[in-house]
Amino acid sequence: MFDMELSNYSYPIEYRDVILSFMKKRIDEGLSRSRSSCFSLYLERFTVYMHEIGVKNLNRLSGHIKRFIGERATLYTASTVSATISCLRSFFAYIHEIGETEMNLGLFLPNVRYAAEDPIPSAFSSDEVKRILDCVDRCNPKGKRDYAMLMLAARLGIRSSDICGAWFFKV
To answer: Higher model confidence: residue 24 or residue 6?
Structure first.
């Protein structure tokens, strides 16, 4: 599964082995599939950028990190830039830990603070729940399925990820 997840990403040859060992370590430590996909994307962007500007040695990254982050800040949202920085901090700590760099390059990363967007409501009122449930057409199988899923969430508080992962034979 590890190789299949990373096959969608293309890393420059000079960075490939260290990135694959980093990702294997993080996945073995329990990094989720979605987070590992994000890490892979951020590392692909970073290493391709470094390759394109001619930086092919991990010890020569430090002078270019802030420029990379600065350029990303103009292209992506603050949350994406913050997540990229978090990923790079972890990667830089790893390459320092295994002796690829003399110092932890994460020290060169800026702190990014951003105001989160309006959050999705964490709870609905009883009236809102009733109105949502009343909107479901229970005259067909899909409507009955949808209604059952909504009831599991509304009445039992089961998370959507658990509901979607439920199988009939498990019930």
So the answer is: 24
